[in-house]
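Slide 14.
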Amino acid sequence: MGMGNKHRRSRSDSGAALVEFAIILPLVVLLLFGIIESSWAFYQANDVRHGAREGARLAAVDWGDVTTIADEVCDRMDIGGSNVTVTLGAATDPPEAGNRGSEGRITVQLTYQSITGFLDTWLGGKQITSDVDFNLEQPTTGQASWWNDGSGGSATCS
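Slide 15: predicted structure.
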């Protein structure tokens, strides 16, 4: 029996495959890094929301001054760090008295941190922000430690 015709790849076929791979590779890399960066941005946005909710709870029970609350918010966030800013103040204008039942607002802001640097052109330096309004539960008399006549204050995590 004869060997018959076997399918052999010629050099031009393997060269064509290499050219096709070179054309597709940048698109696949762009897609892969885009998925990674957008997932990381979503994670950071969720962490900022979590920090704002935690901070609202701390401020509602008069945990302490703005710096103390900001440090605790950053400790409770997964990302945290020196690029997180916590701002506390009254939610109404003009501000209320700052005692039980007054409305407060906390804003937690994080500067986006890139994981690959691949999409810094579009995402680099963006601010991720979350605001939460809450009612003061403490103190029963006098103003909350952070209230400062409704102007509150701002602190960056250390």
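Speaker note: Residues 11-60 form the longest helix (50 residues).
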